[in-house]
Amino acid sequence: KSGITNLRRKWTDFLGFEFKASHKDEIDTDYHQKGITKKSWVAIGRIKRKALKRIETQLIEQLKKIEKPKDEEEQVRNIRVYNQMVMGIHNYYRYASRVYFDLDPLQRRLSNRMFNRIEGFTAVKPANATIHKEFQQRYGKSKMMRYIKQSPVIPIGLIKHNYPSMFDQK
Length: 170
Prior knowledge:
The chain has helices at residues 24-30, 49-67, 72-93, 99-117, 133-139, and strands at residues 12-14, 17-23, 41-47, 121-122, 146-148, 151-153. With 170 residues, it is an alpha+beta fold. A hairpin with a 2-residue loop joins strand 1 and strand 2. Helix 2 runs antiparallel to helix 3 and helix 2 runs parallel beside helix 4. The chain is elongated.
């Protein structure tokens, strides 16, 4: 249940996250930024590979329900469940500093699947689409937002890293 790990040398995992300490200059070359000294270390976090595979499997299973509904009401219900799953993933993993890099490739795969298999999948907002106020605040201005008929589909890749409050790197 507890382990001692040198985070400067190897990754460790905890509750679906993987953590490692890295030089700030290594982080900056990954993000194409310059000008930070080598002496400081920073913790980086990402989604554990096993958890990422589980997320992909669950979302694909939900997409299968959206692809072949019995009627339009069931499709709308399944889209709502899909959106709830995506928002839950965003809420849980938003503190991982590299979460975008993990979820962006998944977003591309899922979008391709929806484009190829779901009738009425579009990036253009339908005139009679109703968007919940929570969706509008968090995702409304994004170009990644897609729609199935009149229902918005939240993109899994549209996640922003949040710094934990009351957290000090020291």
